[in-house]
Amino acid sequence: MTQTQRTTSSQPTGQDSDAQTLGNTSRRPSALSAYRALGYSKVPYSAPLLRGKPQLAAKALSNAPILSQLLELSRDSEQRLYAVKSLLPPPFRESVKSSTLDGDTWCLLVPNNSVMAKLKQMLPSLAAHLRSKGFRVQTIRLKIEGK
Fold first, then answer.
1. Residue pair 80/135 in contact by the 8 Å Cβ criterion
2. Inside any domain, residue 102
3. Is residue 25 part of a domain?
4. The CATH number of the domain where 61 resides is what?
5. DSSP state of 47
6. pTM above 0.90?
7. Residue 39 falls inside a structural domain
8. Percentage of the chain modeled with pLDDT above 70
């Protein structure tokens, strides 16, 4: 028997060769036991699915009627803040944030009392500026952030 005949005859055929190449499957750890070895008690959670397809949060919000109204109010509040940012003193522009919008009343969040005192003096001019830009606003409330 030649060298090539011995190598071909000694190799098992079919499934046996796959099992020997990959090792015995009963000795190989499963994916779940591999995750447990890394410290996980369960398989890690994947991305949430809505109706079988992953979606962006903005798209999911726009599909739900009540949530789309909230999203619209939030966008309107942000547009109002953008419209008055140029009127705010430069040190306050980054610290003032938009908050709730309830009919003709708009609320701004401020970081502390000193910013609130300064902005209270500016409220009539901010409201007039918003009305000139087409926003319907009668009252602007100030609230300290975190309280």
1. yes
2. yes
3. no
4. 3.30.300.180
5. -
6. no
7. no
8. 70
Closest of 54, 20, 49, 133 to residue 86, by C-alpha: 133
- Which amino acid, residue 12? P
Beta bridge partners of 102: 105
Q: What is the pLDDT of residues 13-65, one digit of tens each?
A: 444 444 444 444 556 667 777 777 777 776 556 666 556 666 677 777 777 77
Cα–Cα distance, 54 to 85 (Å, whole number): 36
If residue 107 lies in a helix (H) or strand (E), which one and from where to where?
strand 105-110
Structure tokens at 120: 């209270």
Is 30 a domain residue?
Answer: no
Q: Which residue has the tokens 């098992």?
A: 12
% of residues, the chain, pLDDT over 90: 38
Number of structural domains (the chain) is 1
Angle in degrees, 0-180, between the axes of helices 113-132 and 65-84, rounded to the nearest 10: 100
What whole-number distance in Å separates Cα of residue 44 and Cα of residue 31? 11
